[in-house]
Amino acid sequence: GPRKIAVTLSKGGVGKTTTAVNLASGLALAGFNVLLVDTDTQGQSSFMLGVKPQAGLTEFVNDELPLDEIMIKARDRLWLLAGGKSLAGLKRVIDRKDFGGEMTLREKLSTIDKQFDYVILDTSPGWDPLIVNVLFYVDEVLTPVSLEVMTLQGLVEFLKSMSSIQKYNKDVALKYILPTFHDKRVKKSNAILKKLESLYGDHICTPIRYNVRLSEAPAYGQTIYEFAPGSPGAQDYRELIRKIADNPKLF
Amino acid sequence: GPRKIAVTLSKGGVGKTTTAVNLASGLALAGFNVLLVDTDTQGQSSFMLGVKPQAGLTEFVNDELPLDEIMIKARDRLWLLAGGKSLAGLKRVIDRKDFGGEMTLREKLSTIDKQFDYVILDTSPGWDPLIVNVLFYVDEVLTPVSLEVMTLQGLVEFLKSMSSIQKYNKDVALKYILPTFHDKRVKKSNAILKKLESLYGDHICTPIRYNVRLSEAPAYGQTIYEFAPGSPGAQDYRELIRKIADNPKLF
Ligand SMILES: Nc1ncnc2c1ncn2[C@@H]1O[C@H](COP(=O)(O)OP(=O)(O)OP(=O)(O)O)[C@@H](O)[C@H]1O
Ligand SMILES: Nc1ncnc2c1ncn2[C@@H]1O[C@H](COP(=O)(O)OP(=O)(O)OP(=O)(O)O)[C@@H](O)[C@H]1O
Ligand SMILES: [Mg+2]
Ligand SMILES: [Mg+2]
Fold it and tell me: Is the CB of A8 under 6 A from ligand 1?
């Protein structure tokens, strides 16, 4: 079956969507078949890819439309199940179930995910029944961690919440901690990176540097590889893809 | 009664908590009596002030403890009703009501807020029943807006959601748009500031500059005025207090 990776952290603005979109599109460029699932009411994965979806994950889970009218071909080998405000309706459906609500996503996604090499899930900040659903579906978790004290505190709290899920889902594990917004000229940035490495050494990926190109690309609906292929942002996300695909020869 | 101000935006990591805490503590320094209410399950307002609460907003709304065992004196003239994971329980209480759930916060806070000059509310990213509760309680909304395309998109979506609340609460209005993370050397930063000013001119406050001191202060549980009183971050938040208190002579 596919590798299923949640890109998640309760703390806001740490680079979840930027990572989910550039990871998914980079894997597609490298030749893999990728499904990107946006589970955030903000719907920013679609925005970053320059697509305006008419329907998405909500309509898929509720069987409101056939799959070919919902799943968007965002790029070659990259498919998207969009998020957005309609997900509020999906949360109500999940909440109303007396039991098994946490399996809602898993039950539906497992009917379509076999055709993909990777399923990447973007998630909303905070903690809610939809994030719990994501953690009952995936095997692997990647947490983007911006190099600031408030984010470290958010990581500690998130890992406590995740461990309560792991009692019931033995298959889900934190696999990658991705430092983001690394600014080598800022002493604090390096100090927090050192602290992360001392606490979680074996999970830490090569950091994504702060690179303004990453924040500009969404204005054009382009991935970083389209917008600024030579930029530090593009280099760093290619390095992440090599690590995740366990293939240093990619790109 | 008190001025009631929500510091809120659905987009993550734009400076809501940094603003709520430094606004509340700055108003207290200026001589006002301030209640800071943290409605976020992340509970980061307490963390930034260096306090470890045993109880907070959840226990207050559910009448589990007397007020003097819940409300924390965080600084002179600054009181705190803490957030944190127990707020998940409060959300369930709100959801289970057949009607009037959106008034839960207002009913409880209005029993204690008369003794304050200001009630400042920190909010979680995203959109959920607790944020709706906040918008049915306050009269004024302040949105911190980091100067990036993804945040602009989040602002547009947030204002649509807020307008649906305004149909039912005639008293709540967007009063302040606070640009954050302003980096004058970055062309994009200035361009987005110009765009904000053209769209929302009369609401725009003097921007808060990017200043690493603001991200370091939480490590010591200090406000920016305690940690780095001469820093650009302290200067910019003092300017915000002058604007909000409508008194250019403060500080
Ligand atoms: N390495 C980077 N360098 C510069 N800007 C970045 C970088 N990574 C992300 N950004 C920008 O920072 C902001 C936050 O990133 P992003 O929206 O991906 O975070 P998020 O965790 O998905 O936020 P949310 O919690 O709202 O979902 C965006 O404006 C994005 O374009
Ligand atoms: N003007 C600034 N300059 C530098 N760093 C800042 C500034 N404002 C906030 N920060 C830092 O940026 C990060 C995000 O800020 P903050 O946590 O206040 O945002 P938030 O909107 O409350 O996030 P969330 O959506 O998770 O609640 C924090 O690490 C904070 O210390
Ligand atoms: Mg996001
Ligand atoms: Mg916050």
Answer: no
